[in-house]
Each structure stands twice: as structure tokens, then as C-alpha cells.
Amino acid sequence: MLGSPKSLYFLFVAITVLLGVVFYLWNPVWLLPWGILPALVLVGARDLRSTHNVLRNYPVLGHIRYLLEFVRPELRQYFFESGQSGRPFNREQREIVNKRADGLADTEPFGTRRDVEGAGFDFCQHSVSPKEVDASFSRIWIGGPQCLKPYHSSRLNISAMSFGALSSNAVLAMNKGARLGDFAQDTGEGAISPYHKVHEGDLIWEIGSGYFGCRTRNGDFDPEDFRKKSRSDQVKMIEIKISQGAKPGHGGLLPGSKVNAEIARTREIEQGKDCQSPARHPEFDTPAGLLEFVARLRELCGGKPVGFKLCLGKRDDFMGICKAMLETGIQPDFITIDGAEGGTGAAPAEFEDFIGTYINEALPFVDNCLRGIGKREEIVVIASGKVAMGFDMVTKLALGADMCNAARPFMFAVGCIQAQRCHTNTCPTGVATQNPARAKSLDVPSKAVRVRNFHHATMQSFLDITGALGLDSPELLGPEHIYHRPEYGPACTYREMHPRVEQGDFVNGKVPDAYRADWQRADAGHF
Q1: Alpha helices in 342-403 (DSSP H)
Q2: Hey, CA dihedral for 52, 57, 60, 66, is it positive or negative?
Q3: CA 28, 30, 36, 41: dihedral to nearest 10 degrees?
Q4: For residues 73 and 207, what is the distance between their CA atoms, to the nearest angstrom?
Q5: Burial of 385 (0-12, 13-18, 19+ CB in 10 A)
Q6: What does the alpha-carbon distance between residue 287 and residue 323 come to, in Å, rounded to a whole number?
Q7: What is the pLDDT of residues 5-29, one digit of tens each?
């Protein structure tokens, strides 16, 4: 047992005591450098009674293990991570976002570092006759035949991030950047905060299951409160959040410790009390009920575009909504598809990792369903899921979207370093925290310019790549333009993986085999 950690610890204690006596007898001044040793002795004594196996077996020394574990994410990110290996966004993506945000060239030397022959690689084929895409195609009208006030939107907007998840300065910087660049910011389900209003940038008001910002004291939807706030000129669209990509099928909880007076006022909840977001909406529980809620909100807000956001789950659930459109005659002005790879401030690990449909699989399905019921041209599809570069936008539009939302890249633009401490309130950059001292580190004017720059450069990249394919409009993009390599070997187009459904096929009884079973199960009367 002489070489065991515990025996070494007791030997260390004995030597410490002996040396202390020797130094005291020789010269008391020499006791000062040894002052730390009794402290280590006390730490070791506590470790021997600890419930941690490592600390009981390795008193004092065991703390080195926990120290290294604490700094492991930083060591990996700064020293061991390759350009393409980081997650959720790799270093190469983050560097491109930051270069574009700073207004710098994002050129790279010597050739690609990606494994172009590897499984999962997506690419497109250029034309020998590139086109110049007019800047007017960077915008799109949102608003179907039941909408009175269509919105002329950028094809790239800031995705849903709430005040509470983001700091006040982060919200200010993003909204000012949106105003400078003439695009919109989604409020997230945390309601319209005072910081969303300061710079008067366009807003998409997201209404979650907690109805924050338009709720009664017991948490029900308050139509009069909604009507008053939604008719603000700054609010351009209303988005009903059904589910979120990072935690589909799960509600949310903002701990009472984070519900300060400001958040309580914004969300219309009690200060210091846990704030629960239900997993489902109290106002409806069927596909037809959802559409009736859409119509109700559209009337209350004065005819502005109203739609809903969801992460695609059970396919017959979405088809039930499609059937409800046919049966009720009500349709949304837009549908936001959130990919299962989407981000959030905090989510249960297994919901984040294993539930929901990846955006590149969801978009062709949604596009085909809307086409099958003859409504595709009247409903705008918005893709939200790891959109960071122009090629990401080209891919999403080719697979069935009309436009895109992005969240985390805009966080990078205001200073996020992907420290992944969003849920701890200790964000080192002041982006995702309610700590006032940390939030002050985020300089709003300079970060707003970075937000504008990133948006502009990404839109330009999107138009340039579209033109390189020989297309003079992004509306001509289709699944046949994007190649996917499912394994080492020949690639195929997404069109080959997702055959096209023609306009009105479902209504005319021409349901493809891949859709038939789900279409038969789908019901407008229940999810």
C-alpha cells in the first residue's frame, strides 16, 4: 500500500509537519513559503470524506483531473480542433462569418480542405454560361390571398431568439443591424421587449405556447392585448411557434432565478417565479384548430401575414394540416420549417440529439405536400436550420424553401465565440446572458454594423452562386441542382432522392407510393 494515493497523502502530511517543525526551529521566516501546505492538507482531509470516487482515491491530486475537464472545451476549440471538425459550427464557418461581418474578403488559398469524396458532402454544378442575378431577387413578398398587408421581406432574416436568451445589448445590436440592412428580426417566443423597439427594425412577432406578451394572468391568450401590440407598424408578420428544431415536442422552463423585473414585465409573468412554456398550445389541439387560430390572429392584427413554425415530426401530422387547409379554406401565409439541427439556449440532450427531421429532408417533403394540395404558390416556405453561408441558402431554396432564417451566425456577428455557456448565464461575450456586467461588454454600434455586413455579404454570395449555376433567378432553383454523396462513391441529386409531386396530385388522387400511407392516416380533426 506504500505507493497508493492515500498512503502517499499521509506521507505528504507527515513530511509537511516535520518540515514545519524544522523550519520553525531554524528560522520562523521560512514558514511563510510553506503556508500553502497546511491548506493542501485540509483539502486532502476533505477529499478523503468526499462522495467523489476519484477524490477519495486521489486526494488533492484528483482536483487536477476536474480542472482539466473544466477547461477541456476551450483547449479543444483553441488548440486541437481542425477547420472542419467543430460542432455545431466548425471553425471554417465561424471564420467566414466573422470575416464577412468585418467587411473583409473571405478568400482562401491553395484549394479546399473539405473531404469532397466523403459521405454527406453536398455540392452543385456550375454552368459554362453564368448569369448575373438582379438584386431585386434578394427580396420576396409574403402574404397569400387571405392577407391584407403583405410584407416585402429579405430572403434572409434573423431567426427567433428571445430577450432572456439573448442579452439586452445583443437584441439592440441585431435590431439596429436589421434596420441598417433592411431585413427583419424574429422576436422569439419571449415577446417584444423594449430593446426590440429602440432602433425600429422590422419585427416578426413569434407567439409561443406561453403567449408571452399577450397573455392573461393565468396564462391564456389575451386577444385584446395581442391586437393592440400586433398593429404596431414595426411588427410585420406573426409567427405561431408549434415546435422548435432543437427540442421538438418539448416545452420550456425559464427558472425563477432568471425572471428579473425586466423579463417579467416583457413576458407579462410574475417576477422570481418559474416560467413554464407548455409543450402544446392551449388554444388548439387539431390541425383545423391551428388554422382557425391563424385566421383569428390575422383578423386581430389587421391582415398582416400570419404563419406557423414547426420542426417536421410525424409526417401524417403535417399532412393533417394540409387536409385542414382544404377542408376549412383557411391557409397560412408562410410556414417556417425548423431543422432538428437547429440551436437553442438550452435543451434536454436527447431531444437535441435524436428527435425531429433534418432540414434537408424536411424541405422536399413539405414542398411536395403543399404542391400536392395545390397551395404551393400561395404559401411562402421559410427554412431555418444552420444557414450560415450563401451556399446554404442556395441549397435550402433548391430543396423547397423560398427564403431563410438564421440565428447562430448572427450571434457570431455580434461577438459569440461558441463557448456553449448559453444556459449558464455566464456567456463570456455578453451575447447570451442576463448578467448586466457581462452584457455591457457588447458594443452595440459596432456590432450592428457587423450584423448588417454579414447579411449583405451572405446575400451577395447567394446571388453569385445562383448565377454561377446558369440561373438568372433563385426561383428556378430545384433539387436537381444540388448533388449529395451518401457514401464514398458516385453522388446523386436530391431530385433523384425526392421525386417531384406535381401541382394538385394529392387532390386528384395521384398520391405517390412514398406518401400514400401517411396521407391516408392524416386527419384534419386530430394530430
Answers
A1: 349-354, 359-372, 390-398
A2: negative
A3: -70
A4: 35
A5: buried
A6: 8
A7: 666 667 666 776 666 666 656 665 5
Give DSSP secondary structure letters for 415-428: T------TTTT--T
384, 342 contact by CB (below 8 A): yes
- Long-range CB contacts (< 8 A, 24+ apart) of 138-142? 138/459, 138/462, 138/463, 140/380, 140/402, 140/403, 142/237, 142/305, 142/333, 142/334, 142/380
pLDDT attached to residue 54: 82
Cell numbers describing residue 265: 414585465
Locate cell 431530385: which residue? 495
197, 198, 202, 208: CA torsion to nearest 10: -30
Tell whether omega for the bond before 499 is within 30 degrees of 0, i.e. cis: no
Q: Which residue has the cell 439556449?
A: 345
Q: Which residues of 79-109 are buried (b: 16+ CB within 10 A; e: fewer)?
A: eeeeeeebeebbbbbbebbbbbbeeeeeeee
Q: Give the span between the Cα atoms of 302 and 369, in whole angstroms.
A: 29
Q: Which of 71-85, 316-330, 379-393, 416-430 has the lowest mean pLDDT?
A: 71-85
Measure Cα distances from 485 to 97, 120, 123, 195, 397 in Å: 26, 5, 9, 44, 19
Residue holding cell 425563477? 256
On the CB side of 58, CA atoms within 13 Å amount to 7
Instruction: Evaluate whether 408 touches 172 at the Cβ level (below 8 Å).
Output: no
* C-alpha cell recorded at residue 481: 441542382
SS3 of 176-217:
HHHHHHCCEEECCCCCCCHHHHCCCCEEEEEECCCCCCCECC
Distance separating alpha carbons of residues 226 and 215, to the nearest angstrom: 8
